[in-house]
Design the sequence.
DNA sequence: GGACTATGGTTAGAGTTCTAACCATTAATT
DNA sequence: AATTAATGGTTAGAACTCTAACCATAGTCC
């Protein structure tokens, strides 16, 4: 097995400027670090919420419905940032689990409103503490100031990327 | 449609301590911010690499093979942090695209080594600048010091979560 | 040496998400 | 009013990822 030591890169990569070749190490890429972080977060949270029958796929939609109950399926898609087919299956799943219902609109027969059941609504008080707990564990050892900085920097790069994708792709983030 | 204004939360959620109820807003959760960031990053990068026929699924494995060529499939799984069935399909895909080959081990007939083709290896010089570009766009407007801080904080929370998941789950991050 | 156990890889089936194509309903235009 | 546009939702098919079950090979232990 060929294991190049740090800095032992093929000639055409060595020829690249240092600002580029640092990315040969994934740990130097923000994308990689975000991915690892997200996966860890998602896993930890799902382990907790699954005890109440809530999967990570349902979670994002449930959270949005707590903020705004009764949107159309299209509106829900936009708020959550997912494409419509994704919303279809997520809502199917919420309905199947008894957390939400589909309610056909009366003034426009194309539209369907998604509404929480009492069960779905009641879960907020149960599940929010779990998010808090996972956030706490993730930030253990950081000061409040550092956490605030992290939030600010993350929001900044997310803003940058939303802007890039909007002007270039002209479309939502898949 | 019911749109609760900020702070207009159901009684059982209002009853929660403030440290918990802040998470009613996704923008206050690190997990949400990581997820958005990762998705933006992944989308931007894939738009570029796909012009060379490299998908985001292949990307992570390719990057690891650039660091260490010829691992067994099991070793590759561990390095990349994916489960074995995931590696099977990823390697299938790399082989199909002519970027890597499966090479049965001679000393242990259970093992299979994964080795880059010249094409797969040559892509490093082409694709690394793309990662650099996406990182640059994502961090536009941040100082070098802020970027360094972001990397440090992300590595810190990733370390925390790896530790949590190791001791509690006893298993890899899905 | 033959029966357990461990290791490496694969297959089967599921969940989450996407794009593309489609159908139903409403709005706009001529 | 009839045709065309736009809007809301669904279905079909794919990519990526997982868990669980499985097969093949190698190592261990009586």
Sequence:
């Amino acid at each position: 097995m060929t294991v190049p030591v740090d800095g032992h890169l093929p000639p055409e990569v060595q020829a690249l400027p240092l600002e580029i070749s640092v990315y040969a190490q994934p740990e130097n890429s923000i994308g990689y670090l975000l991915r690892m972080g997200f996966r860890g977060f998602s896993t930890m949270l799902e382990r907790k919420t699954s005890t109440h029958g809530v999967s990570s796929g349902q979670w994002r939609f449930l959270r949005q419905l707590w903020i705004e109950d009764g949107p159309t399926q299209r509106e829900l898609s936009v708020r959550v940032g997912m494409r419509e087919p994704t919303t279809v299956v997520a809502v199917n799943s919420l309905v199947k689990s008894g957390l939400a219902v589909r309610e056909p609109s009366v003034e426009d027969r194309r539209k369907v409103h998604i509404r929480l059941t009492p069960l779905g609504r009641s879960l907020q008080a149960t599940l929010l503490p779990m998010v808090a707990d996972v956030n706490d564990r993730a930030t253990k050892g950081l000061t409040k100031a550092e956490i605030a900085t992290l939030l600010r920097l993350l929001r900044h790069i997310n803003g940058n990327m939303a802007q890039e994708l909007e002007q270039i792709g002209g479309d939502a983030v898949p």
About this structure: Residues 163 and 170 of chain B are 10 Å apart (CA to CA). The longest strand of chain B covers residues 100-104.
